[in-house]
Amino acid sequence: MLTSDFDYSLPPELIAQFPARSRDASRLLVFNRPEGAIYHRLFPDVLSFLKPGDVLVLNDSKVIPARLRGLNSRTGGRFEILLVEENSTNDWWAMMRPGKRAREGTRIDILRLGGETGKIQAVVAGTNAEGHRRLVFEGAANILEELSALGEIPLPPYINRASLENMEEDRVRYQTVYADPAGSVAAPTAGLHFTEDILEQLRGCGVGVAFVTLHVGLGTFAPVKSGTLEGHPMHEERYWLGAETARQIESARAAGGRVVAAGTTTLRVLESVAEANGGRLVPGSGRTRIFIYPPRAFRAVDALLTNFHLPKSTLLMLVCAFASPGSLSGRERMLAAYAEAVRERYRFFSYGDAMLIL
Questions:
Q1: Where in the chain are the domains?
Q2: Which CATH number applies to 3-63+172-357: 3.40.605.10, 3.20.20.30, 3.40.50.620, 3.40.1780.10?
Q3: Rounded CA gap, 63 and 182, in Å?
Q4: What is the pTM of this model?
């Protein structure tokens, strides 16, 4: 299929720049696949679409304050650093600007949030094929534990912040209420709508609530540069599926309940594990490069809660596949649903509204 097949027109003013006044104040577009029907609701109405015996699966990865500022220890030149992935304690891959000045051996003083120089330094130890720098941190037992005093929340590039005025709100709202453990550099945004109260109401209605972990990387925003989907090198992400979550899901499936994935990251974990194990969900950890696009059958997930995704993105391709499993028609059906969302002035992307595909 062509990448251009997944394009659509979006007025810039529909890209949500700030979260809704409260987590559950977002709108909810419900796409009923068997009926081909669309319903316009508010997010708390998700309670009426999940049934006793269903299990809701959420990605509990926590977003880290991954954007750092630093000074070249020798020249005083400024660097912007975006941590990408931890190799081991104090050893990270990172994107750096300006990258051409981050030569191997460069020593960088890491600035605190107030702009003053602290005791922590980073040394450029290498470069990979993607142009990312390998940084080894000194002056801290574990840089991950120091990030709250050093780093900014890595908001996606389509959210504009002229200053750090909203930083404290973003630290809270660009994070799910159940986030733990730390490791993502982008939020699993479908989970941003949930409050503790809604989760408790779901449990009280007989809906199981379970968790997986997938640490979201910058690849989630990577554009598809190839003209065809087959030419796109899918990014890799780390995941973990615990024994209790696997047990809950298998028990629900055996009893006729549905598996409802909250977010494309959750779906990618479940489908990756099912694909590798003949449809079974076996506990364990690993790395996935699964690239889901039409036509695609699904082995583990029956319903999907998600946000609205960027044109020509791998996430839009995934939801198009889910809109009509095993068929090419999902692309047309999903783009029609997106067109209606645009007409109805839904808010798009990370801080935007939600869609429930049943």
A1: 3-63+172-357, 67-150
A2: 3.40.1780.10
A3: 6
A4: 0.94
